[in-house]
Design a protein that fits this description.
Layout: H1 3-19, H2 22-28, H3 35-55, H4 61-74, H5 77-83, H6 86-91, E1 101-104, E2 120-127, E3 131-137, E4 140-148, E5 151-161, E6 165-176, E7 181-184, E8 191-196, E9 200-209, E10 221-225, E11 236-240, H7 243-250
Antiparallel strand pairs: 1-2, 2-9, 3-8, 3-10, 4-7, 4-9, 5-6, 5-8, 6-11, 10-11
The protein binds fe (ii) ion.
Fe (ii) ion is lined by residues 135, 137, 142, 192.
């Protein structure tokens, strides 16, 4: 095709698209304006489907963890930050003296999710030296991905549940930078503790509650003190403590 013929062909194609109203429709739905946004919206729909599979018992919790981490590693962080309207959110945050602020996220405008999502979601925000204090969960799978800032992040397996303490086993202890992630289930890495090492730190979190019918406990947090006595087998005697005590010591 010569250049002149191609120009004529393109003009004709454009003309026919316009006459069918296609261009106008595409622009109105914002599909051509921001293809990046479409990618992260699709990602969010995938995340919702994954959480539905866990709730529908089509997936074991440890497989859910692996798949959630795969998804988190795949997301374009800048697009996610745009999608959750991070700039607007971050301006309204009130940082507590201890611990982290928890900020809700609205996903109702995400295409494909207008009927709601099957997971809870929030952003944790904190200043340097403040923490998402050490705690575990019952009957819940959850995952973090760092949006901004550096963290020191620790996880532990909850090996034994006793009257006033858990026996826990250290599993992860490292620095987490933007885009890096970790997950929790009743089975694996059940206790987490993240401390902001940069001026500010922001973590994106999703959680699925009530996924495990064998665990009759509520899906609330259980606060622990991970700096207890060490056993000969490499475990830690982690006392069960209140939220207030945990925030006083580690917040
Ligand atoms: Fe948690």
């Amino acid at each position: 095709m010569t250049l002149a013929t191609r120009r004529t062909f393109n003009a004709q194609l454009l003309g026919s698209l316009m006459s069918f109203g296609l261009i106008e429709t595409l622009c109105r739905n914002d599909l051509l304006a921001d293809p990046a946004k479409a990618t992260v919206q699709k990602w969010m729909v995938e995340l919702n489907e994954l959480c539905q599979s866990l709730k529908g018992k089509k997936l074991k919790d440890v497989d859910f963890q692996a798949k959630l981490e795969e998804l988190y590693k795949r997301v374009d962080l800048n697009e996610l930050i745009q999608l959750v309207d991070f700039d607007r959110l971050s301006k309204s945050i009130r940082y507590p003296d201890k611990g982290a602020a928890s900020v809700g996220i609205d996903l109702s405008k995400v295409e494909g999710l207008s009927r709601g999502v099957s997971f809870g979601k929030q952003i944790f925000a904190m200043r340097k030296g403040r923490s998402i204090v050490p705690h575990g969960h019952d009957n819940m799978c959850t995952g973090f991905v760092v949006l901004k800032g550096d963290f020191s992040g620790k996880h532990y397996d909850r090996v034994e549940d006793n009257a006033d303490h858990y026996l826990i086993k250290p599993t992860i202890d490292r620095t987490f930078k933007p885009g890096e992630c970790s997950t929790i289930s009743d089975t694996k890495d059940n206790v987490h503790w993240f401390k902001a090492e940069s001026e500010y730190g922001f973590v994106f979190n999703i959680h699925v509650m009530g996924y495990n019918p064998e665990n009759k406990k509520n899906s609330s947090r259980v606060y622990v003190d991970p700096e207890g006595e060490k056993t000969a087998g490499g475990l830690i005697v982690a006392k069960k403590i209140s939220s207030a005590e945990c925030h006083r010591k580690y917040g």
